[in-house]
Amino acid sequence: MAPTVSRWSPRDTVTSMTLLTLTREEAATRSALVTVDRYDIDVDLTGLLEGHLFTSTSTITFSCPSPGAATFVDCAADITRATLNGAELDITTAEGGRLPLHDLAAHNVLVVEASTRNTGKGEGILRTVDPTDGLVYVWTSLEPDEARRLWACFDQPDLKAPHHFVVTAPDTWLVTSNGAPESVVETEAGRVWTFPDTPRLSTYVVVVNAGPFHEVRQQHDGYDLGFFCRQSLVPHLERDLEELVTLTRQGLAFFGEKFGMPFPQERYDQVFVPNLGGAMENWGCVTYGDSQLFRTPPTHNQRDVRAEFIHHEMAHMWFGDLVTMRWWDDLWLNEAFASWASNWSLARATEFDEQWGSFLALFKRTAYEMDMGPGRHPIRGDVPDVASAMANFDAITYIKGQSVLQQLMAYIGEDAFVEGLRSYFRDHAWGNTVLDDLMSAFGAAAGRDLGEWTTAWLDRAGTDVISLEGSTLVAESPDDQDPRPHRLDVASYDASGDRLRPTGTMSVEMTAPRVELDLPEGDLRLLNAGDLTFAAVRPDPTSLRLMLERVAELPDATSRALVIGTCTQLLLLGELAPRDAARATTRALAAERSPALIEPFLLMGAAFAGRWASAAESPALVAELADVTLALSKLPEHRQPALRTLAVTASTDAHWAALEEAVEAATDTDLAWRMAARRAELDQHDPEAVQALLESDPDPDAHTKRLRVLAAHPHVESKEEVWKAFFVDYSVPASRETLELGAMFWRPQQAELLAPFALRYLDELRSLQGGLLNQGVVIRAMYPLGAGNAEFLARAQEAASDERISAYARNQLHANNFVLSRILEARQR
């Protein structure tokens, strides 16, 4: 699962129910008492064509080793009738999303009829009306325990069973589920779609999607590949179809070979749905937010991120779906593995062969930002209930987790790592596991005891700092224990000539806080070369100066990305001035030609110059970035991302002339919107021009781009309209662009205007609507990282301890408060 969010309308009628969260002890007790044989689930979607009614009949066949015992079934919908072994149940006893079951037999059949109108919040299901043509689309997304909102089930990951779906839908709709339909029959009620039994699956990875989708199917390598989107986005799917097919084929082939087990189903569908901010690894039928079908031809970075989505969700078919964690305390492993595996496969099997450099430059900093501050937590934590599982659904789970897996591969070697995975999948297919099962497989393949390694890396929070003192490599722990074991490389370079000359790379396994090295001659020492471990690095003064001045001369993308990543780490450590980070990035961009690094460097350069730098220094640093970006825009292969950054940094006639020429030449609506936002930020807002742009843009989510223009405008009325869309109307569609919208709202040069809004943000956290993941995008997008002041920071630090705010929101506050505190300090240097 990639982080998933969805948006909804407050006009929806919803069922009001305070739901209980399943505890670990309850799950273990029920697991010992219940073995699920199968689910037969009839779903009626006809009430969603013009309304919000969803109905289901769930027939659960299960056994119990202790006849006469009692348990409960999960059902958070409105139960209308229930029978157990033919006897009527008193449905008034249902409470908190649970229906009690008494006097169980050795073999049981439970039938529960239920319905819900809660189809507009994205809690398990979302009904969306496309504003361009009025067509209705429906998707389900059931992690962690949202299946209970739609039908009765034992909603926990270790009670796996085959699922059999029969779906009645309007006759104009297509329906997708976890496999190919066995039959589609026309009836008076609508089309009835019957799907075959799934394999033994957990309740959270089954799916029903429906609507008048456009469908494309292709046969390749023994697989039946399907791609779906809403009708208004057909041209964008058709434009990118060849690439999507290629990435899918490459991923299935790579994972099938490396895991020693081909994907064991012929049909593999990928469905692009509206208002889903991430993706979900439903078995054989992955769903993605259709913002991944880019409305203008995508840049390399957009394609790269989408490719990572495709391979991330595909990796889950093995790790998560085929073999599933027993309980949510291993959720981190599920997600970290898929993130690691996707980068591994992209680097090895696709055109994105510099993926590790791209990952380091673009994403790894988010884990350091969280792990180096007070919001840090162990990768593996105590998860007493399902609600607690999602509280730490963050960069430590995904990014640090995958980095630790990358370190483990370096630690035991790739051959042992792959053999461990193969034995893990072979031994546990269709079952449930705990972390020890995986680590034992790795340890057996490597011939090493990984117990201490596991404890050091997974059960302790914080980031080690590694530095070189003369010839001594030193690791410092953030706690009172020894540093973690690190397997890393130190690369040396001679800087005496016109170009940096490599003089050698030393591999080091650190099992003690201090290790003496016999390094080759060199002026620049690049610590953690290849980015094999997760640690902040503190270069010696000479190496730091040379890194910042001569970053462009480093021979590979990962090394150049490591320099920019080190800038972020040193800013978080309070040991670097933002001007130095900004100018190093601008210097790198002046010579950079790798498409894997251009956009990450542009984004980081804009952050260093615009967000981290002081108000006095920022304009000049932004102008320097814009000038380099203008030069980059003259190179055809980098023109599009360069122009996009130029559009948000433009300040001279030359900048605007280049942008106007580009828009006229290519009719680039995306670039035109970015220019409109920049003009609005400079207080040159033209409402009539924006309205004309809105009317000419065929994108069904174009109104969000108008909001981005208003967000940048330094006037209270414009800011209020955006605020209302976020916190009153909940009308911002879910996508990664939502974070971009938040960044436009909190412009650093508008700090005085924004100060009251920053304090209002803290008040809004106490009353956010919707599910946890729905709230997550608002929490992250609308934190005033660019414009918060000392008063806000003090209030936000108090709010981080306010238990009226959700645990997830408090966790995000801790992390962002730390970064903001470092920004405010850095502006003084």
Short recap of the structure:
Keywords: Aminopeptidase, Hydrolase, Metal-binding, Metalloprotease, Protease, Zinc. The chain is an alpha+beta fold and 829 residues long.
Would you give an account of this structure?
The protein starts with 23 loop residues before the first helix and ends with a helix. Residues 3-16 have low confidence and may be disordered. Helix 6 (364-371) crosses helix 8, helix 13 (557-573) runs antiparallel to helix 14 and helix 14 (578-591) runs parallel beside helix 16. The protein contains 27 helices and 28 strands. 43% of the residues lie in helices and 18% in strands. Among the domains are: 1-212, tricorn interacting facor f3 domain (Immunoglobulin-like, Sandwich), CATH 2.60.40; 214-318, Orthogonal Bundle (Neutral Protease, domain 2), CATH 1.10.390.10; 324-458, Neutral Protease Domain 2 (Neutral Protease, domain 2, Orthogonal Bundle). By secondary structure, the chain is an alpha+beta fold. The protein is globular and about 85 Å long. An 8-stranded mixed sheet has the order 5-4-7-2-1-10-13-12. Strands 15-16-17-19-18 form a 5-stranded mixed sheet, covered by helices on one side. A hairpin with a 6-residue loop joins strand 24 and strand 25 (501-510).
